[in-house]
């Protein structure tokens, strides 16, 4: 005859630490998104690679330390997308179709994050404050970057991954001669894209001022010529009138006759 164990008797033979660990594992597994696989390795590792995701999964385990989202269809990283993951250390967003990253996207994890992979996406530019307070090593290779002042400001103080830094290249540029060159090499050569931007702005202002001055000058010339034409017509009109001096001479002659 089989012996039936009560719940109390069953757990009475199991160490308390094992029970707590089992409960934690059950809770973590319950929080794992359906499209992902979660495993505890001294912190939750959440694997969501190649799942055709078009957005970052919601309700991720709060104890996630590694989040792998590569090879999906994610197009945008919204503000505070990972704010509920205070223990996050590694984030892989490579091989997606990301075109934009909002300012504040990494709020809440910027201090603790150690690796951020944004390689092989569709990024051409980023807001200046995208990586504020970020201490992670960042991969930005194989994106269609536009080399200009905005990108230079983003890279200022950023820890680029040394293994892929030369693969961050100018897809387009404010000067065509830099297209295809690694951004780091261009900047190390002393090029300052922000100086080019300032010069471009100065030229635009000069052109605008020149156009304004030309319009004012043209108006003044037109005004003077118009007044000269009016004056000429007025003189011709006056000349067409009977001469006052001639009338006075005729009057004096008539008076002398009388």
Describe this structure in words.
With 258 residues, the chain is an alpha/beta fold. The chain is built from six helices and ten strands, in the order ααβββββββββαβααα. Strands 1-2-3-5-7-8 form a six-stranded mixed sheet, covered by helices on one side. Strands 4-6 form a two-stranded parallel sheet. Helix 3 packs antiparallel against helix 5. The longest helix is centred in the C-terminal third of the chain and has 48 residues. The chain starts with 6 loop residues before the first helix and ends with a helix. About 8% of the residues have low confidence.
Write a brief caption for the model.
The protein is an alpha/beta fold. The protein is 38% helix and 13% strand.
**Helical content (DSSP H or I, runs of 4+):** 25-40%
Apparent shape: elongated
Order of helices and strands: HHEEEEEEEEEHEHHH
Please outline the major beta sheet. Answer: 6 strands, mixed
Q: Structural class of the helices, strands and pairings?
A: alpha/beta
Residue-averaged pLDDT, rounded? Answer: 81
Major sheet strand order: 1-2-3-5-7-8
Rg estimate, integer Å? 39 Å
Strand content: 5-15%
Task: Output the number of helix runs.
Answer: 6
Which stretches are poorly predicted, pLDDT < 50 over at least 5 residues?
17-29, 197-204
Instruction: Count the beta strands.
Output: 10
Distance between the termini: 169 Å
């Amino acid at each position: 005859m089989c012996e039936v164990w009560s719940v109390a008797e069953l757990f009475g033979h199991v160490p308390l630490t094992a029970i707590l660990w089992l409960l934690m594992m059950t809770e973590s597994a319950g929080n794992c998104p359906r499209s992902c696989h979660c495993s505890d390795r001294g912190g939750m590792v959440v694997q969501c690679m190649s799942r055709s995701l078009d957005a970052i999964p919601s309700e991720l385990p709060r104890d996630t330390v590694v989040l792998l989202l590569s090879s999906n269809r994610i197009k945008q990283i919204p503000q505070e997308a990972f704010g509920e993951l205070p223990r996050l250390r590694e984030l892989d967003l490579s091989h997606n179709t990301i075109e934009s990253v909002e300012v504040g996207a990494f709020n809440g994890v910027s201090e603790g994050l150690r690796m951020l992979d944004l390689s092989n996406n569709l990024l051409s530019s980023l807001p200046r404050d995208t990586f504020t307070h970020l201490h992670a090593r960042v991969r930005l290779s194989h994106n269609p970057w536009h080399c200009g002042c905005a990108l230079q400001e983003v890279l200022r103080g950023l820890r680029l991954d040394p293994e892929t830094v030369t693969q961050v290249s100018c897809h387009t540029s404010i000067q065509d001669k830099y297209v295809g060159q690694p951004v780091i090499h261009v900047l190390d050569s002393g090029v300052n894209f922000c100086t080019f931007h300032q010069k471009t702005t100065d030229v635009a202002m000069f052109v605008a001022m020149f156009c304004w001055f030309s319009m004012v000058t043209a108006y003044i010339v037109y005004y003077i010529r118009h007044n000269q034409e009016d004056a000429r017509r007025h003189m011709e009109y006056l000349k067409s009138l009977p001469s006052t001096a001639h009338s006075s001479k005729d009057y004096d002659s008539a008076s002398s006759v009388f």
